[in-house]
Amino acid sequence: MNETIRELLTRVGGLPVAVSELEDGADLYAAGLSSFASVQLMLAIEEAFDIEFPDNLLNRKSFASISAIEETVSRILKAREAA
Amino acid sequence: MSLAAVATDMSLGARAHRVAMVAAEFADRVDQEGRFPREAVEAMKAERLLGIQIPSAFGGEGATTQEIAEVCSILGQACAASAMVFAMHQIKVSSLVEHGTESAWHKDFMRELAARQLLVASATTEAGIGGNMRNSICAIEIDGDICRLTKDATVISYGTHADAIMVTSRSHEKAASGDQVMTVFRKGQYTLQKTVDWDTLGMRGTCSDGFLFKGEAPAVQVFPKPFAEIAAQSMLATSHLLWSAVWYGIAADAVLRAQAFVRAAARKANGAQPPGAVRLAEASNLLQLLKANILSGLKVYADAKADPDQLSSMAFSIAMNNVKLASSETILTIINQAMIICGIMGYKNGTPYSLGRHLRDAHSAQLMISNDRILGNTSTMLLVQKPDTSLLG
């Protein structure tokens, strides 16, 4: 999952730095992720993992870092398995 | 209520009304001369309105956003420029109140602001950022205990009249454009070299000239939180809500003038319906819609305030954006209706029904943070965020 997220971040994130140089916990907004790019990233992740982000997870925190995104996606996948 | 009772009533509403009387007296001169509404701001200080938002623990009154919005609306009915200065000051104070309580310097500054009624201005726009205040080009330089900043600020409203200015910048020399901090610089810690004149259609008294800002201050004056958080959690909501309250005030006064015009006509009409009466009913309908829009926004903010996640959610941003879009567009329709009702008496300056200043001031609403930019942001968020379709929220 980490790899897919990094791949999508490279494709739609528009970051001024190389994604491979970012730590999992690095603040993506501080790294230059714009709000428009963050939405593009959400859409790309929804498509890649065939999920839909519930409204309560659509906030800055859920997408603040690569590990935060991983955690958000895992939560949704887990909730779906449980359902 | 007798005059003596009005003069001694210390409720927030009464104090705001007393300031509004001063603001109204000078509104036309402030507008014509494009000068700072100093009499109204002196009156705000005398009535101790500048510190009302500061918590009582720091010498203020802990006024809520609702209460401050009410003051904005009362002032907006008298002089939009005075009301906007008050609103912009309170927006800056909200950043202190919401994000300054963990820093000793900012706590002391709050105490002093309340005690000495300091006026705070804002320098968030910069040449070259295309109007997007969430980006900076300039970067703050931290040198030991000292911070230094030079900013080509295209707008600093009432900059030369303020006791302090809050300035955004990149957090360090190598930071990305969106990695910002905000710093409080006090008068005496900066110089302002005027670069752009504020000669505008309306809101002429806010004196929103452009300046080259150069400041040096103790580094503890930098807010300890990223500006992104401050912007999302206090500035977005308070800006849109308090601006809207000012705009509501402009529109409300226009409807009042239109009503006075229709009533005067009705008295002469011997029972016949005067022209403009139906339009007045329509304007009153729109004014109520505008009021409901702002009140619902104030409630959303009050409810969300307890939960930082909620404040930084897309649903909340969309709700605040929608308040701003609707308010800024509806006031133009309302004031235009009022103008048609009052006819040439509304179009002329210097009559009891004059609406030129109202209409010109109101035209700023769509532009201060361009509605097109806000629509663009909302439309981006709506690619993922489902609209809230519940009635009660």
UniProtKB/TrEMBL annotation, chain A:
Classification via Pfam families: PP-binding
Residue span(s) of domain Carrier: 1-80
PROSITE patterns registered for this protein in UniProt: CARRIER
Protein name: Phosphopantetheine attachment site
Source organism per UniProt: Xaviernesmea oryzae
From TrEMBL, chain B:
KW GTP-binding (keyword) present: no
Top-level taxon: Bacteria
Domain Acyl-CoA dehydrogenase/oxidase C-terminal: 232-367
GO molecular function, one term: acyl-CoA dehydrogenase activity
Listed Pfam families: Acyl-CoA_dh_1, Acyl-CoA_dh_N
InterPro entries according to UniProt: Acyl-CoA_Oxase/DH_mid-dom_sf, AcylCo_DH-like_C, AcylCo_DH/oxidase_C, AcylCoA_DH/ox_N, AcylCoA_DH/ox_N_sf, AcylCoA_DH/oxidase_NM_dom_sf
UniProt xrefs under SUPFAM superfamilies: Acyl-CoA dehydrogenase C-terminal domain-like, Acyl-CoA dehydrogenase NM domain-like
Residue ranges constituting the Acyl-CoA dehydrogenase/oxidase N-terminal domain according to the UniProt record: 23-103
Cofactor requirements of the protein: FAD
Keywords: FAD, Flavoprotein
Similarity annotation: Belongs to the acyl-CoA dehydrogenase family.
UniProt-recorded name of the protein: Acyl-CoA dehydrogenase
Species, as recorded: Xaviernesmea oryzae
Lineage, broadest ranks: Bacteria, Pseudomonadati, Pseudomonadota, Alphaproteobacteria, Hyphomicrobiales
